[in-house]
Structures are given as structure tokens and as C-alpha cells.
Amino acid sequence: AQEKSGSIVASDVSKSFGEFEALGPVSVEIGEGEFVSILGPSGCGKSTLMLMIAGLLKPTRGSIAVNGRILTKPMTDVGIVFQDHLLLEFRTAFENVLLQQEIRGLDRAATEKRARELFKKLGLFGVETRYPRQLSGGMQQRVSIARSLVHDPSVLLMDEPFGALDAISRTQIRHDLEMLWIETRKSVLFITHSIEEAIGLSDRVLVMSNSPGRVVKEIRIDLPRPRPAYLGQ
Ligand code: ADP
Ligand code: MG
């Protein structure tokens, strides 16, 4: 069995689209169980960086290792919440989450059990058979979070997961996600352009700037929140 550590090491990663230098070089390290936010203006390359860490986009230069292994293709041990949640319209909420089982060839019964647990924890109980179009933006984002977690990845990448939501569902989802995270303590890379969100949720905030996107500042935050015993105080 593969060791579940949840570490990310991106070393001097840059990305150009043709002549256009979109990002970098940037270096990002995330340790086991760490919650790291990336804060930066629109267009500074946050999504580009996340897609490269997810193994869905190839860096122009530099390398990325997840759990100590250099990425050459998308890794199964990563969960992704995309900026516009990317749910399939012709599948119900539950079927969208079970897509992970089909793509990754996981055990059906175990995945369904986990999906049901996540639906309960994420306030989705009762919407299993609804289609994305029948759900509010907040509920769709909850389904997309359930999909990102159903295969129990050690690393969770979230691209502005609350970006399109109203203040109330934003606060509620954020709370549920925080509880879930405290319980499972996955390593998280959280992209946002809200300073308040970054500071309220993270152990560390990486601040990026534009043209080309770079990490210009790193802020360590001491959060007064419960930590699992094995990590100490
Ligand atoms: P952010 O997520 O921080 O808003 P992105 O990573 O989406 O920024 O984009 C960074 C820059 O790269 C932007 O200028 C964007 O227009 C450009 N870009 C992103 N993806 C592509 C692509 N596939 N082809 C060309 N340019 C792109
Ligand atoms: Mg983006």
C-alpha cells in the first residue's frame, strides 16, 4: 500500500502559454496535514499552479512531487475542487460523486458507503437523486467537495471553492469544511482572493502578485483551533 503522507513540493515551477509567461518560477511546499492558502489577484496564475499540482497541466519548467513522487500524470491521492465545480449535468448528485469510483476503479460498495457519509456531513442528505441544475450554487459546491473527498485523498486542492457563493452559504460551507478538515486533517491547498478566508482558515498564506505570477510573501498564522493529538500543540 502507498504511504499516505500528503506532502506537496513544487520546485521552481513556471508556466508559459506560447510566448505568454503566465506563472513563475514559484516554489511551494505543503507538509503533512498543513492548510496553506494562496492569495492573489485575478490572473496571477493561481488556477494554473493548482492544475499543475493536480497533474492536469504540465509545467514549462520545474518539478512537482506529491507524497515524495515526482508527478508525471494525475495522482489518485489528490482531491480537486475546481473553480466552477464542473459537475456533470446529466448525472444526479450522487452519481457525480460516484464518478470517482468508475474512473479510479474503486470498490463500489465502499465508495457508496463513503459517499453517503459525506452527503450527511456536508448537509447533502436527501439530494442524492437531484440533478445539478435542481440545486443551488452552494449545494452544487457541496457535491463537488464530496466528489473531491470520496476516494479519501491525502491532499485536497480547492480553487476558490466559495468564490461564487452568497455570504450565508459561504459561511455555512466554510464551517462544515473546517469541521471535516479538523476530523480528517488532510493537506490542503486553498486558493482564494479573500484575505479574510485565507487568514481564517490557514496555517500559512502565500501571497502572489501578477505579471508573471509569483509568490511575493509568506505569512504564518497561529490559529486557535483544535488539532489532533498526534500533532501535539
Ligand atoms: P488566476 O487563477 O490566478 O485568476 P489563471 O491561472 O487562471 O489565474 O491564469 C493566469 C494567466 O494565464 C492569465 O493571464 C490567463 O489569462 C492565462 N491563461 C490561463 N490558462 C491559459 C491557457 N490555457 N492559455 C492561455 N493563457 C492562459
Ligand atoms: Mg483561477
Automatic annotation (TrEMBL):
Residues 8-233 form the ABC transporter domain. Signal peptide: none annotated. The keyword Nucleotide-binding applies. One of its GO terms (molecular function) is ATP binding. Keywords: ATP-binding, Nucleotide-binding, Transport. Belongs to the ABC transporter superfamily. This is NitT/TauT family transport system ATP-binding protein. The lineage of its organism: Bacteria, Pseudomonadati, Pseudomonadota, Alphaproteobacteria, Hyphomicrobiales. The chain holds residues 29 to 261 of 285 of the full protein.
